[in-house]
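Thought: the user wants the 3D structure for the chain below. I'll pass the sequence to the structure tool as-is, report back what it returns, then summarize two notable features.
Action: structure_tool
Action Input:
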Amino acid sequence: MNYSTLKKTVAFTLATAFALAANAQDKPSATTSSAKVFGGRAQYRTWTVGINAGFTVPTVITGGQDDFNKGLGFGEYTFKPYYGINLRKQLAHSFGLQGDLQMGKVLGYNKNGLVSVGSNGGGSPVVSVNSFETKVGYDLSLSGVVNVATIDFIKRENKINFYVSAGYGLMGYAPKGFTSYKNNTVVYDFKGKAGSSRNETYVKQGYIPVGMGIKFKLGDRVALDLGYTMKFIDSDNFDGLYRIDNFPSNDKFSYTHAGLEFSLGSAAKPDLNWVNPVAMMYDELKDPTLRQEVEALKGRVSNLEQSVEDLKKDSDGDGVADHLDKCPNTPAGAKVDGAGCELDTDGDGIPDWKDKCPTEKGTAALNGCPEIAAATITGLNNIQFEYNSSVLRTSSYPTLDKVSSMMRANSSSMLQLDGHASAEGTDAYNMQLSIDRANAVKTYLVNSGVDAKKIATKGYGETRPIASNATEEGRIANRRVEFRQQ
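Observation:
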C-alpha cells in the first residue's frame, strides 16, 4: 500500500462517516425520550463489542528516540496490517472500561543500517541491521476511555464523539531482523528463541497504550470508530536488537485503525455512550409534559394551602377553628372552652366573661354574684367611705366601737365584713378598693381587742350596688362596708 492510496482511502472513509452521521441525526431515536437525567445506569445499554483493522508504523506522533526513524521509506516500507476486537463496559456517559485483543505486524527500515549486539541482548556478535519485521502474536490491554467532547451539544443524544484513552497491556511478539550485505540478505528470525532459555515462541512484555479518536453514530446500534493508539513498550527489544551506537531506549509503535462498534442489550434502551446529560436536562425543562406535571403539582400545592387556611379559619375570633367550633357565634372577647362554647365555671347560666363572681353561683340581677342575707346585727349602720378612699371616717368610730364591744362580749360569735365600691373606675380597681375597705374595718376592730380569727373579709367591688350609680347619692351609699354575722 502506498501513501497516496492510503490518504485517498482515509479521506473517503471520513466523508462517508460524516454523511452517515448527519443522516442519522435527522432520524431521532425512538428510545431517546425514555431516559431521564437522574434515572440511573439501568435505563441504558452499557455493553459494546467492536472490531477494528488498520496499519502500524514504528514511531509515535509525540516524537522521542526511535531505532528505525532514520531514512524511513514512509508509506512504502513501513505500513503493516494490524487488527483486533474489543469489549467495552460504559460506566458513565463520559467514561468506560475497554478490553482489547489485537495482533499483526510492525515493520521498520533504515538504509544506513543500525549497529546492534545480537538478538534480545543475547551476547551474539555485533551486527548491522537494516530493517525488522516483528510479528505480534497477541496484544491484550485494558484501558479507560473518556468521551472528552461532542459537536452535538444541544442534542439529547450525541452523533459524533471525541475520545482519549489510556491503560496497560501485555504483548507477546517475535522480532525478525534483516541485514543486507553484498546484494545478499541475511535474516535473523528470533521466533521460538525468546525467554531466558531461548525456547519460547514470543517475548512477553508489558506496555502502556495511549490513544485518541473520533466516533460517528451510524445507527441505534452501530458506530464507526476512527482512532490512533501509541504503544509504549517497556523494553528495547521489540525491533529485535539492542542498540550500541547510541543510548538505548524503550521501543514504541503506533496503530491507526478504523472499526465498527455494536451496542448490546435491549432495543428499548438508548446507548449510554451517546448520552448528553446537559442537553437532556435542558430538553426536559422544555418538555411540555414535564411543564404540565409541574403546573398540576402547583395546583395541588395551591389546593393544599387553601385547605390548610380553611382549617385555620376562625370566624368568631374565639381561638377555636370553625371546623371544631360547636358554638360558632360567640361574642368577640368571650372566654370559651375547647369546643368554642362560652365558659360558665360556676354553672349559674351566666358566662364567665359576664359573671362578676365566676366561681360562685349567682343571679343575672347581681351580674352573676349570689344574693346575701342582710346584716343580722341590729342597730348597726353601714360604714361609709369617701370617693376613691379606704380611710375610715371619724363618724364611723361609734359604730365600730359598738361592734367591738359585742364581739368581745360574745366569744363564740363570728363576723364577716363585706366591702363594696361605686361604679367609678375599672372593675379590677374597684374590687381591690372594696377589699381594702373591708380590711380597714378589720384592722380597727383587731386593734380594739377583737380576735382576728373571728373576723373574715370579702370584697365585691361594684358588683352589688344598693343604690343607683347614676346619681351621686347612690354612689355615696354604695361606698360601704356591711356587717354579716356568721
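Final Answer: Structure generated. The radius of gyration is 55 Å. The chain has three domains: 3-24+44-275, 287-343, 383-485.
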